[in-house]
Structure formats: structure tokens, C-alpha cells
Amino acid sequence: MTSLFVTGCGRGIGLELVRQAIDLGWNVSGSVRDRETADTLARQFPGRLGVFVFDVTDAEAIRAAAAGFDGAIDILVNNAGIIGPDRQSTLDMDFDGFAETLAVNTLAPLRVAQAFLPNLRKSDNPRILTVSSAMGRMSYAKSDRIAYRASKAAVNKVMQGLAADLEGEGIAVRLLHPGWVRTDMGGAGADISPEESAAGILEVARNTTIAATGTFVNWDGTAVPW
Question: Cβ of 143: how many Cβ atoms within 10 Å?
């Protein structure tokens, strides 16, 4: 049975990943930031979802959660993320908000991956997928939401490096653009539903092999230019 762990699984794409993976019969776990959300998920998926409470910027809490996770993880999805501060122009930057955006979107995925590496190493087919964004492409020269864009460009490079370092162990690492999704972050006018995005992401996860490590793809599996 496939074992999946999803950070930020309390709403949006993360919640839909959990729901669909449970329907597939997978062994599913995930993280949320507060106990109230964890209790809600436990009631929603009784006996079907292992819920861990930690903020992805809290190194100690992540280590404790990983230490308390028993068994292998086949697929780790770094899904938790934020859009960043209201003021994030190169000419008017909320620098504290910029730092928080980097902490959540760039540093946290690596911190989570490192913490759960012992569990991934127990898998016969370990994969790490990090939800990035096409907004972080270096070839896409836009300046709106620059803190968010920069954090995604940075996590692309970090995960590309992690892919190189883990390739010899057979642990595949990939970046995913989830599409423009109708969530709290994406807004009501976005192109696709969370259901469609999550289904595509799970299909990408299922089909990922070590041959594809270090690549950046859309939710539908098509390549994204860096």
C-alpha cells in the first residue's frame, strides 16, 4: 500500500490530495498548524488519516513529528505555502513578510524533507514532490508578488540540489506547478478546481521514477521551463 505524507493538508489542494489518496486506499498522513483543524480532519476521515500538528517553520516540532512517525513514506508532498505580504514590490517591500515567505515556501520544504528522510529511506520507491509555481520561473520576468515569486524560484533551486544529492540513493525529487487553482490563494477566478489539480498531482506522483528526478512539471505532467 502506498504511503503518502502531505504538509498543509487542512484545506485547498492539500485537503483534496488527502481525500483522493484515501479513496485510492493509500495509507495517508499529513500536517496542519493547529489542533482544531487536526480534530476536524480526524472527524472527517475517522481512522483513515494520521494527522500531525506542526508549523513548517518550527524545526523542533517537525523533528518531533518525524520521530513519532512509524514506518515508510513512499511519497512526501511539500504542499504548505503562503502567498506573502500585502506589500511585496521591489519598490515597496515588507521585509519581515518577505522573510516569512522564504521561511515557509523555501526553507520549510527542505527542513521537512530532511526530517522525514529516514522514513523515505525505508520505502522501495521514495519520492519527494514540492509544490512550486510557474510564477517562480526565471524566464518569466514579472515583478508582481515578487516575494512569492522569489521564494518559489529559490525552492526550485534548493530541490534541484536535493535531487542531485539523493539520486544515488534512488530518492526522486521533483517540483510541481499545481496550476492556477480555485483556492483561497488562487481566488474564485482561477482556471481549475482543487479536485482537478490534486488528481493530476497524484498521477504525477504515481508515475515518478528516479529517471525524472530534478525536473519541474505541471500538475498534468507536462514540462515547465525553468
Answer: 10
Assigned domain for 223 exists: no
CA gyration radius, the chain: 16
Note down the domain range covering 149.
Answer: 3-218
CATH, residue 10:
3.40.50.720
Helix, strand, or coil (residue 155): helix
Nearest to 54 by CA among 64, 67, 69, 43: 64
Q: Where are the alpha helices (DSSP H) in the chain?
A: 12-23, 35-44, 59-67, 95-102, 108-115, 117-120, 146-166, 194-207
Cα separation, 141 vs 159, in Å, equals 21
Please count the structural domains in the chain: 1
- Which tens digit of pLDDT belongs to each residue from 176-200? 999 877 776 666 676 778 899 999 9
162-181: pLDDT as tens digits: 999 999 999 999 999 998 77
- Which member of 26, 52, 69, 148 is catalytic? 148
In a domain, 97, yes or no: yes
Q: Judge whether 148 counts as a catalytic residue.
A: yes
